[in-house]
Design brief:
Strand content: 15-25%
Structural class: alpha/beta
Shape: elongated
Radius of gyration: 21 Å
Number of domains: 2
Order of helices and strands: HHHHHEEHEHEHEEEHEHEHEE
Helix content: 40-55%
Strand order of the largest sheet: 5-4-3-6-9-11-10
Distance between the termini: 63 Å
Largest sheet: 7 strands, mixed
CATH class of the largest domain: Alpha Beta
Length: 280
């Protein structure tokens, strides 16, 4: 690699067989934006610019790690979620585009309202920070993982928002306080679904944030719903991101516990991915 125009050829050659060509190009554009601050048009306009030695080394290191199927978000230690910057270090779940749809739903439902929000299993804090940036009220988040909370605190600081963070095991402790909105994207991937997952997820992302036993697929949803019946204000709302296989089961469970106005919503890929329920 001597010039900017050589970088894409290098990515395509070295990552051929590891990823589809379209994905390789996406990884290239993410990398060049991160290291050089170049947009797609910049890579054309500045294609003849000489590439400094330090950048050659950094691009080579990125490709080496991509060959090991390490997620680009962990390599660069950052990603964008709902238009906001987030640190993403190994040990914390990488924010997903599907979760942006959940955030968008909550924001549209609660615009111009002053409410108390609680995010259960916050991880990187991408949900609660995005809500804080777009809504009015008080914002709280809990997680069982010390690693996740360290990352969450860094992301709160990076985005200059006011979020109260606390280490808390929802399966082992009872919630307190009163809340208008509770949101959770808990572990919902079945152990039996491991065989269908890509290596860049299985080998790198935290198992504690992903998997539940096949025998108890709604473990977290049932516990959170039970706790929510005690701490949600009248007409308070519970939002979940869910496993697409368990949309009907999740809706039925919430109805049995006394929730009303339950909505099951599909994501952009036409999969049952989100549920909303009101506590009367």
């Amino acid at each position: 690699m001597k010039k900017v125009s050589d970088i894409l050829s290098f990515f395509l050659k070295e990552l051929n067989g590891y990823y589809p060509e379209k994905e390789i190009k996406s990884l290239f554009y993410i990398s060049i934006d991160h290291l050089l601050g170049y947009s797609k048009s910049d890579t054309i306009i500045k294609s003849e610019n000489e590439l400094l030695p330090d950048f050659k080394i950094e691009f080579s290191e990125i490709v080496e790690r991509l060959q090991k199927k390490e997620p680009i978000q962990y390599i660069l230690m950052e990603t964008t979620f709902y238009g906001l910057p987030f640190f993403t270090r190994r040990g914390v779940l990488i924010p997903r585009p599907e979760t942006e749809e959940l955030v968008d739903w909550i924001i549209k439902d609660n615009e111009n309202l002053e409410k108390r929000y609680l995010d259960i299993g916050t991880g990187s804090a991408c949900i609660i920070i995005s809500l804080t940036k777009n809504l009015n009220g008080s914002f709280y988040a809990i997680d069982v993982s010390p690693d996740a909370l360290r990352e969450a605190k860094q992301n709160v600081k990076r985005n200059n928002v006011d979020v109260n963070l606390e280490q808390f095991d929802i399966l082992d402790s009872d919630l307190d306080g009163l809340w208008d909105v509770i949101v959770s994207n808990p572990p919902y991937v079945l152990e039996s679904e491991r065989k269908y997952m890509q290596q860049n997820v299985l080998a790198w992302e935290p198992k504690i944030a992903l998997f539940v036993r096949d025998e108890t697929p709604l473990l977290f949803y049932e516990r959170i719903a039970d706790q929510s019946t005690k701490v949600l204000n009248k007409n308070g709302i519970l939002y979940f991101e869910i496993n697409e296989k368990y949309g009907k089961e999740t809706v039925d469970m919430l109805a049995q516990k006394g929730f009303v106005n339950i909505e099951l919503k599909k994501d952009i890929n036409d999969k049952d991915r989100m549920v909303k329920a009101m506590w009367k």
